[in-house]
Specification:
4 strands; alpha+beta; 2 domains; binds zinc ion; 3 helices; two-stranded antiparallel sheet; 100 residues
C-alpha cells in the first residue's frame, strides 16, 4: 500500500528522484521549513562538507617571512625565518656550523 501523500522530489544535486514522506512533510511544516530540494544523501554530504570546511585549517604554503639580521659571529648580514629577539643571532652558515 502506497501513501498517496508522499511526494516525489527531484534532487537538485544528483537529479535522482526521492520520496518526501508524509512524516517528513509534517516535520518540515512543524519547523516552518520549505520543501527539501536535495535528497537525504546529498544533504548529508553537504553537511559533512560544511563541517569539514569549518574545521579545516588554511595551509601555510606561502613564502616564509624572513627577518634581516647581522651575524654576531661573522658580522655578515643575513636573514632568518624567525624574528630575532636580540642581537645575539647567527647567520644561517654560522648557525649550521655552530651545531656541528
Ligand atoms: Zn541527491
Ligand atoms: Zn655568520
Amino acid at each position: 500500500m502506497t501513501n498517496s501523500e508522499d511526494k516525489n522530489i527531484t534532487c537538485r544535486d544528483c537529479q535522482q528522484e526521492f520520496v518526501w514522506t508524509k512524516g517528513e512533510q509534517d516535520f518540515y511544516a512543524e519547523k516552518g521549513l520549505s520543501a527539501p530540494s536535495r535528497c537525504r544523501d546529498c544533504r548529508t554530504k553537504r553537511k559533512q562538507m560544511r563541517d569539514q570546511g569549518g574545521q579545516g585549517r588554511p595551509m601555510s604554503n606561502g613564502p616564509k617571512e624572513m627577518f634581516d639580521i647581522v651575524c654576531k659571529k661573522c658580522d655578515k648580514p643575513g636573514q632568518v625565518p624567525f624574528k630575532p629577539t636580540s642581537d645575539d643571532v647567527l647567520c644561517r652558515d654560522c648557525f649550521i656550523a655552530s651545531r656541528e
